[in-house]
Design brief:
The protein has 444 residues and is α/β, with parallel strands linked by helices. Helices cover 36% and strands 16% of the residues. The protein binds 4'-deoxy-4'-aminopyridoxal-5'-phosphate (PMP). Keywords: Aminotransferase, Membrane, Pyridoxal phosphate, Transferase, Transmembrane, Transmembrane helix.
Length: 444
């Protein structure tokens, strides 16, 4: 008989070749596939062939879990791009920057003081959600699985007894003791002790804390610069001896923003995901000024997973060596692609009075040594009609899947559109938006 053809939702017809007009434009996730064509064009430079016997050990020759060669290339890359000061700083590797963001909260809470720490950020914000958010733990090895179980139990106990100090949470220790008896492994015990040793709560927007920083409260501020969702460069708002910032620089690369000067903060976090686009390799690094914070973050990474996969470190080395070799080809590719998309989106919306996107001023970039136009990773999109308009629903009805503004602490008039997915995703977005705008009453 005839071969059965399984089409996906966007294609139909006998041989799956007909594009369906009902196919939605999905611009929800921040999957950085816009960089795929770059690696296709440079196929040999990004390719790896690894023997089965290569790097089987838990550690590198010097007992460390961090590839010295990779660390060297990361420092070199920062100095070529001029986006971070790394001289005299410590570097910690993580399973994506997600793990490092959690490691940093944990470590700053530990090193800040013995009392409970409040975690704050400024709206609209990337919802990192330290540890309690279990989305973080989608991985792999047995140690991590045990850590997940511990974390679920701790969070569950906390949720039920919210408002109490952790020292009062007797139920945590009884729950974890039960698990101790069941699992009875040394790793499990050390992790239980480790993850129980500090406590922190996500409490909300920095504006609540602006006047409270001269008290004794320990405050950890998340600063995402450029910001996700709105692409603006940000600085920490809170000051004082009890305020510590975690600077998430996932997008601080020439693809997405001008680089005005090298970042020079105490805790800076970067990721391969948005630099080369290899989000699935799960590799990030933190640049740390203070040795105690560095030690605490290293201990965290070691407890949660015995460090970062050496295969991943090899991939990162191969890619970053290439990125740091030429004349910044990946940055030109990244900037031109993103700039082009931003221009097309701007033109599409220029005839609309119903919808708007954020404005970002051209800015001097020390990497390109000139003033350059914006090219953010996301559009922070606003429905302008009603105060309480559900912008997500408006766009969903027009066949566009976005991420709700409420997830970023904003109101429902806002949504985020990802511009870093494939060219097909972007083209479909523009096609759907063009139709939506043309149907507007009184479109200009
Ligand atoms: N920080 C920001 C601001 C992000 O947008 C993302 C991914 N969307 C991350 C961190 C996490 O990236 P990863 O864990 O892949 O390094």
């Amino acid at each position: 008989g005839k071969p059965v053809c399984e089409c996906n939702t966007c294609f139909g017809g006998p041989d799956c070749s007909q594009f369906s007009p009902d196919c939605p434009a999905d611009v929800d996730s921040g999957n950085p596939l816009f960089l795929e064509p770059f690696w296709m064009q440079n196929a040999a430079s990004g390719a790896l062939l690894v023997s089965g016997w290569h790097r089987m050990s838990y550690s590198y020759d010097d007992q460390s879990n961090i590839s010295e060669e990779l660390e060297k290339h990361i420092r070199k890359l920062h100095s070529i791009v001029g986006n971070a000061v790394t001289e005299g700083r410590f570097i910690v590797f993580g399973t994506g920057s997600t793990q490092l963001l959690n490691a940093a909260v944990h470590s700053l809470a530990l090193t800040n003081s013995s009392s409970r720490a409040a975690v704050v950020t400024t709206k609209p914000f990337y919802p990192v959600n330290p540890l309690p958010n279990l989305r973080v733990f989608l991985f792999f090895n047995s140690v991590t699985m045990i850590a997940i179980m511990v974390e679920i139990l701790i969070q569950d106990a906390k949720r039920r007894l919210i408002g109490y100090e952790v020292s009062e949470l007797e139920s945590i220790s009884s729950l974890t003791k039960q698990y101790d008896n069941m699992a009875n492994t040394q790793a499990y015990k050390s992790q239980t002790d480790f993850f129980r040793s500090v406590d922190y709560n996500f409490v909300g927007d920095t504006s609540l804390f602006k006047n409270a920083t001269d008290g004794n409260a320990n405050i950890i501020e998340f600063v995402t610069s450029p910001n996700n969702p709105d692409g603006l460069l940000k600085k920490a708002v809170l000051e004082g001896p009890h305020a510590k910032a975690i600077n998430d620089h996932a997008y601080f690369w020439p693809h997405y923003t001008a680089i005005p000067a090298p970042a020079d903060e105490d805790v800076m976090i970067f990721t391969l995901s948005k630099l080369t686009g290899h989000a699935g390799s799960r590799f990030g690094w933190a640049v740390i000024k203070d040795e105690a914070v560095y030690q605490a973050m290293s201990a965290y990474a070691s407890q949660i997973s015995f460090g970062v996969s050496h295969d991943t470190q090899l991939v990162a080395l191969k890619l970053l060596k290439f990125v740091g070799q030429g004349k910044g080809e990946i940055f030109d590719f990244g900037f031109e692609t993103m700039r082009n998309r931003w221009e097309i989106l701007g033109k599409t919306l220029s005839v609309s009075s119903r919808f708007s996107i954020q404005e970002i001023e051209p800015q001097y970039c020390s990497f390109y040594q000139k003033v350059r136009e914006p090219s953010p990773a996301y559009a922070w999109f606003k429905c302008e009609r009603d105060e309480d308009e559900d912008c997500y629903a408006v766009l969903r009805a027009a066949g566009i899947i976005t991420r709700q503004g409420t997830i970023f602490g904003a109101d429902s008039r806002y949504v985020r559109l990802s511009l870093i997915k494939t060219q097909d995703d972007f083209d479909l977005l523009i096609r759907k938006l063009t139709i939506l705008v043309s149907e507007e009453d009184g479109a200009k």
